[in-house]
C-alpha cells in the first residue's frame, strides 16, 4: 500500500483553511467517513499542479518527508510522483512512487467527482490500489482522504497537503475545520509529517524544492 497521499495521495487534492472551511456546506450532525462521502473535488484542475508537502496525516504516517509532485497532462491525465523516507525516523528520501491517473468525464463532458482508484508503482511494481477523494482546496492547502477497502474503516486515512509557505497554525486550522465534516480528521489531533531536514541522493545536501516534472510526465504518458 502506498504510504504517501495522495498518496496515498493522496494526489492528489480543495476549499478550506482560514475562516471558511468547506464553503457552501452545512456542518453535518455526524462527520462522514471517506468511503461514504458522495463526491470528490475534480482532479481535472490545473491549480493542483506543482509541488506539495504532506504535512499531516490521520492516523499518523509511518514515514517522513512526504513530497508530492503533480502535473495535469492535456486535461487527460494527472501524473503523480511521490517521494518519502523508508521509515518514520529517517529524513533520507529514498523511496519514489509514481501514478498515472486517467481522467474520466460524465456523458455530459463534466469532469468526474467520484474520486479515483489510484495505483502507485514502486520499482516498476504496482502496489495495492487506494481510492482517493479530494475534499477541500485553497491553493495553499489540499485536504483529502483515501481507503483501500470501502467496508473497512481501518483502511482509511485523512491527509493534508500544503505548498511551501505553510504554517503550523494553518495546518491546525485546516485539520480542525475538516474534522467538522469528515471522520478521518479529529479536532485538535493529527499526526505531523516531518518536513524539516529532508534530503535525497546525498546526506550532505538538502533536497531542492524543484519539481523537474516534465520528464516524468513524458515518460508516464508514452509508457501508458
UniProtKB/TrEMBL annotation:
Keywords: Signal
Signal peptide coordinates: 1-24
Protein name as catalogued: Lipocalin/cytosolic fatty-acid binding domain-containing protein
Amino acid at each position: 500500500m502506498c504510504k504517501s497521499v495522495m498518496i496515498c495521495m493522496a494526489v492528489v487534492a480543495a476549499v478550506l483553511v482560514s475562516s471558511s472551511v468547506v464553503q457552501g456546506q452545512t456542518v453535518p450532525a455526524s462527520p462522514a467517513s471517506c468511503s461514504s462521502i458522495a463526491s470528490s473535488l475534480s482532479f481535472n484542475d490545473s491549480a493542483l499542479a506543482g509541488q506539495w508537502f504532506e504535512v499531516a496525516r490521520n492516523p499518523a504516517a509511518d514515514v517522513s518527508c512526504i513530497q508530492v509532485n503533480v502535473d495535469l497532462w492535456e486535461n487527460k491525465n494527472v501524473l503523480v510522483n511521490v517521494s518519502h523516507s523508508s521509515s518514520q525516523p529517517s529524513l533520507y528520501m529514498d523511496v519514489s512512487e509514481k501514478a498515472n491517473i486517467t481522467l474520466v468525464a460524465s456523458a455530459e463532458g463534466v469532469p468526474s467527482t467520484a474520486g479515483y482508484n489510484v495505483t502507485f508503482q514502486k520499482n516498476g511494481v504496482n502496489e495495492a490500489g487506494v481510492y482517493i477523494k479530494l475534499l477541500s482546496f485553497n491553493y495553499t492547502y489540499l485536504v483529502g482522504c483515501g481507503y483501500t477497502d470501502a467496508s473497512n474503516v481501518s483502511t482509511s486515512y485523512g491527509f493534508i497537503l500544503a505548498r511551501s509557505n505553510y504554517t503550523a497554525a494553518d495546518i491546525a486550522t485546516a485539520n480542525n475545520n475538516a474534522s467538522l465534516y469528515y471522520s478521518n480528521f479529529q479536532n485538535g489531533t493529527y499526526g505531523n509529517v516531518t518536513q524539516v531536514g529532508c534530503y535525497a541522493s546525498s546526506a550532505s545536501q538538502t533536497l531542492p524544492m524543484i519539481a523537474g516534472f516534465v520528464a516524468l510526465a513524458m515518460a508516464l504518458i508514452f509508457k501508458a
